[in-house]
Design a protein that fits this description.
This protein has 366 residues and is α+β, with helices and mostly antiparallel strands. The longest helix is centred in the C-terminal third of the chain and has 24 residues. It has 2 domains: 179 residues, no CATH class; 167 residues, Phosphatidylinositol 3-kinase Catalytic Subunit, Chain A, Domain 5, CATH 1.10.1070. It is built from 12 helices and 11 strands. A hairpin with a 5-residue loop joins strand 7 and strand 8.
Length: 366
């Protein structure tokens, strides 16, 4: 959403606001009942859950503005509390919110999750909304065994291949295992205070509603995102961002990652600079041969018109380079480096898991 303009039309504002809310319609209906508002009205929902959202924005009614500008507080929570939240979320995939009366949070996306604050000393807490959350916790997806480890390994392996990624861990709280990712749109200072960093996902940046995130459903293509990056950055910045974005596309092709849609790429807006955000929300279907037959899997964004990873060849990447004004030899080199380095990168990621049981599970995933 361009900052140069003070006023924007509904066509721009509504996709931006909708992009701050969960995509699970059952969660929205639950919130609608709880707050007695329409679940299809992002303005009304954010009045109640908009204190802490993706990026640096906060949404409060006029009477609460002064209160929202105060430093805020954190209620300490222990492992038992986190384990209970995780267990509840596994039983009820719509139970995203904390106990009533504490915090006003909204997390985007489809997968069940919740957010907490983690201090410099490693302690956990539930902030009141004025103070921001710093970490997101996501248990495994029902029906996809060990998806939490899958997602962590995919991020770790990408990092070992030189791709900038969000920092994640696998942690266990009283027997409840979960994927924990550090928010890249938050900066925790030495004194424990948190600075919000503004971000927009590519659907928000291009004024596309969340339900249109897939290219084959009218959502942004790789070319559209590359054009956006070149349009909002300096030549040198755009060159770096487009290279990083292209490497992310290659990586998702190598691992058969079907959910690398426009909402899973973002830009960070810091003062007058626009930066491509670290890679996040990455997973592979190769761990689930019973649920996903590889010939039928499609990538979220096509490569020179082809979405089936098993059908994408060097010629497709050469054509991708031509269409996007990239050096074909550079793209081929990136593809070779990522594809040939992936096995060792995953082996390294598995070896860094915090327990032998997790490492065995990680081997099964890979």
């Amino acid at each position: 959403m361009p900052k140069m303009a003070l006023h924007h039309s509904n066509k721009v504002v509504r996709p931006f606001l909708a992009g701050l809310l969960p995509e699970n319609p059952e969660v929205l209906r639950r919130w609608g009942r709880r707050y007695d508002v329409s679940p299809s009205n992002p303005f009304a929902l954010l009045e109640h859950v908009g204190d802490d959202v993706a990026g640096a924005a906060q949404f409060v009614i006029p009477d609460r503005v002064d209160d929202a500008l105060q430093p805020g507080s954190v209620e300490p929570v222990d492992a038992a509390y986190i384990a209970d939240r995780l267990a509840t979320l596994r039983l009820d995939r719509t139970a995203w919110e904390p106990d009533q009366g504490r915090g006003r949070f909204s997390l985007a996306g489809q997968q069940a999750k919740f957010a907490l604050y983690r201090g410099p000393d490693g302690s956990w807490g539930l902030p009141d909304g004025r103070k921001a959350t710093t970490h997101i916790l996501k248990p495994a997806v029902p029906g996809l065994d060990d998806h939490d480890i899958n997602e962590h390994l995919c991020l770790e392996a990408a990092g070992h291949l030189g791709i900038l990624t969000a920092r994640s861990r696998i942690e266990e709280f009283h027997g409840q295992r979960t994927f924990v990712v550090q928010r890249y749109d938050r900066d925790v200072l030495d004194d424990g205070s948190v600075e919000r960093i503004h971000q927009e996902d590519m659907c928000q940046a291009l004024s596309v509603r969340p339900e249109g995130k897939y290219e084959d459903e009218g959502g942004p293509s790789a070319r559209k995102i590359i054009e956006l990056l070149r349009g909002v950055q300096t030549v040198d910045q755009a060159r770096d961002s487009v290279e990083r974005f292209t490497k992310a596309l290659i990586y998702n092709w190598v691992i058969a990652g079907p959910d690398a849609h426009a909402k899973n790429y973002s830009v960070l807006l810091d003062t007058d600079q626009v930066r491509l955000a670290p890679l996040y929300d990455v997973s592979s279907v190769l761990s689930y041969p019973q649920q996903y037959r590889l010939p039928g899997v499609e990538l979220a964004m096509s490569i020179a018109g082809e979405r089936h990873p098993t059908l994408i060849t060097g010629q497709h990447w050469t054509e991708f380079a031509r269409r996007n004004r990239l050096d074909a030899d550079d793209v081929a080199g990136w593809a070779h480096q990522i594809a040939s380095g992936a096995p060792a990168a995953f082996a390294r990621a598995i070896s860094s898991l915090p327990s032998e049981a997790f490492r065995v599970t990680g081997c099964d995933c890979v």
